[in-house]
Design brief:
With 499 residues, the protein is mostly beta strands. It has four domains: 60-166, Sandwich (Immunoglobulin-like); 173-283, Immunoglobulin-like (Sandwich), CATH 2.60.40; 290-390, Sandwich (Immunoglobulin-like); 400-498, Immunoglobulin-like (Sandwich), CATH 2.60.40. The protein is built from two helices and 39 strands. The strands form eight sheets. Strands 1, 2, 3, 5, 6, 8 and 10 form a seven-stranded antiparallel beta sheet that branches. Strands 14, 16, 18, 20, 21 and 22 form a six-stranded mixed beta sheet that branches. Strands 4-12-11-7-9 form a five-stranded mixed beta sheet. The longest helix is centred in the N-terminal third of the chain and has 19 residues, at 2-20.
């Protein structure tokens, strides 16, 4: 622009000079009076002359200073070598590079700041900064960032940088984190649901509690049994803290049930050893043992002799050689000789799981249900272990009751039966009731109604026996005792005697 200005000035000087000299009668002035841009009378036409009013398009640049002292691409920092957790002021100029690097002051502009340490949380900065003076000022604080951080200011594609050096803080202590798992399975007994490994984390900090990166941390284990066949191990045994002061190791279970802790240690600035230990990690629940496998049924005497689809829940309980629940790392298989059953179930964290037996063909009065898995044999070694249980499948068909005197004084007993598919008398099903009532007498027993509970197999497979004590109200007047049987299928039978 300065070049254009000089050319125009020379032309005007020459015109003035000629006019002063009087010129020549045949000569004319170089520029017509009135400032016209030339002939034709079109004042809007452009002959290529420079009027001095055109402005070049704005080009934003970032740097330090302005005008002739402007240095593009740099941020000014009060301090470039910071102590741990130190703070410094940063300043950057926003200029128009197409207009002599003049500060942009005709409007507000927004300048953003970023860095690697700001991104990972080990430094903070006030950003963005809005300025109308053409100068953006902000404050940067190191919070564990080390050893250096490049801070970048940016706006509309322009940027400027400064490198800040941050001194490393002295490591003071190690802080333990909560383990990934506080209870894991012994070696060889793990699963995806309950593994045999647990990650344990720590953080190295300085006296102010801020993270310290790049510190060597050693790990060791405590609490394992004295001579396990497979010891508890950790991997790695040494590690370096990351940018957040974080470090971790993996605890790998051994063969025995025990409780262990990880001890992490660092060397402090004065050469001493600083250690801390993790929360405890329990290692327990090995494979099931044969003597610890238990099978239970929700109803041992179902009313299913003539009905398909009656269900009975079977639950298996498993413990290991230490009597501890086998926790979620074993699958139990089931088979039955009559009806049908769910094929398998995985043990829960409580060492149990349940399946459903269903009445259907093949029809058996006493089907056998067997639970099988791999575990420790009673005699030693590992192999197939199992536990079996039976059902007594009864019916509500054709109940009968016989009431008579019992073996003790004033005792009276009812013998109750139903029939099976062959027409033979069998023990009645669960929830069959025998209700006793008396006229002209008193029932001395606390319970007047007896119920088939079904919590175990019947001791007598042909009948259910229920007894009460009763006597006359008046020795001279006979009393009448009645026993009424009601099955879960709502079939009824009754018998009575005079006492």
């Amino acid at each position: 622009m300065s070049g254009k200005f000089l050319t125009r000035a020379s032309a005007l000087t020459l015109a003035v000079f000629l006019a002063a000299c009087g010129g020549d009668d045949s000569s004319s002035s170089l520029a017509p009076v009135g400032g016209s841009n030339g002939g034709g009378g079109d004042s809007g036409s452009d002959t290529g002359g420079d009027t001095g009013t055109d402005q070049p398009e704005e080009v934003i640049a970032l740097g330090t200073g302005d005008g002739a002292s402007f240095i593009e691409g740099q941020i000014e920092a009060d301090i470039t070598n910071l102590p741990p957790r130190g703070t410094t002021a940063l300043t950057v100029s926003v200029v128009d590079a197409a207009n002599g690097n003049r500060l942009i002051t005709d409007r507000d502009v927004e300048v953003g700041f970023r860095s690697g340490c700001i991104t990972n949380g080990t430094a903070t900065i006030n950003s963005p900064i809005i300025t109308g003076s053409g100068v953006a000022e902000t404050s940067y604080t190191a919070n564990g960032c080390t050893p250096s951080d490049t801070v970048t200011a940016f706006i509309n594609g322009a940027q400027a940088d400064v490198v800040l050096n941050v001194e490393s803080a002295d490591a003071d202590r190690v802080i333990s984190r909560e383990p990934q798992f506080t209870s894991i399975a012994p070696a060889g007994s793990g699963s995806s649901a309950r593994p045999s490994e647990s990650e344990v984390g720590f953080q190295v900090v300085d006296q102010a509690g801020d993270p310290v990166p790049g510190v060597e941390v050693s790990f060791r284990i405590s609490g394992d049994t004295s001579s396990p066949s497979i010891p508890v191990t950790i991997d790695p045994t040494e590690a370096q803290s990351d940018s957040n002061g974080e470090v971790s190791t993996l605890v790998i279970a051994g063969s025995d049930s025990t409780v262990v802790r990880v001890i992490a240690g660092i060397e402090t600035a004065d050469g001493s050893l600083s250690e801390t230990q993790s929360p405890p990690i329990a290692i327990n629940s090995t494979i099931p043992i044969e003597s610890g496998l238990t099978l239970a049924a929700s109803n041992f005497i179902p009313d299913a002799q003539f009905t398909a689809g009656v269900e009975v829940e079977f639950t298996v309980f498993a413990t290991d050689k230490n009597g501890q629940n086998v926790r979620g790392n074993t699958v139990i298989n089931f088979t039955t000789t009559g009806g049908s059953i769910t094929p398998e179930c995985p043990l829960s964290e409580d060492g149990e799981c349940s399946v459903v037996w269903r009445s259907q063909a093949p029809w058996l009065t006493k089907p056998e249900i067997t639970a099988t898995t791999i575990g420790e044999l009673t005699g030693g070694g590992v192999g197939t272990i199992s536990q079996s249980g039976q059902l007594f499948v009864s019916s509500s068909r054709s109940p009968s009751v016989t009431l008579g005197a019992g073996p003790r004084a004033d005792e009276y007993c009812a013998s109750v039966s139903v029939i099976d598919a062959s027409g033979d008398p069998i023990h009645p099903p669960t929830d069959t009731t025998v209700e006793f009532a008396i006229t002209d007498g008193d029932i001395l027993s606390a319970e007047t109604t007896k119920t088939v509970r079904g919590t175990s197999l019947p001791a007598n497979e042909t009948e259910f026996r229920a007894c009460v004590f009763a006597q006359r109200s008046d020795d001279a007047v006979p009393a009448r005792l009645t026993a009424t049987v009601t099955t879960p299928g709502d079939t009824v039978a009754e018998d009575l005697i005079d006492i």
